[in-house]
Amino acid sequence: MLIGRLDEASPFITKDGSEIREVAGPQTLPSQNQSLAEATVPVGGQTTAHFHRISEEIYAFTRGVGRIKVGDEIQDIRAGDTVVLPPGTEHKLWNTGDEPLVLLCCCAPAYSHEDTILTEPEPA
Q1: What single DSSP character describes residue 7?
Q2: Among 49, 74, 76, which residue's Cα sits nearest to residue 64?
Q3: Domain residue spans in the chain?
Q4: What is the pTM of this model?
């Protein structure tokens, strides 16, 4: 049995600009059909609006407050909230609080840069 440890996962920046630490996925544990990572959006930060052609995502917020755009709808979110993001649906996060916005992100199939399509210019 292999066990992923969040505190030992190396962070990297995804195509949408968020920092993630993957604990399960094709590159970390032998998960072929999904991935699980912790993502962090810093205070005052935001992700670049994007969608995934084939991946469905589940965001489970564990710390902080912010806003999320899914399609044409924008809602406030906070720790304890969970949002499902269907494939092909544009989405974006903003951290509106005074601490990092932290979430667990499950992608099925597993996250890949190639499946991430940006729909706005990346921040300078």
Answers
A1: G
A2: 76
A3: 13-116
A4: 0.90
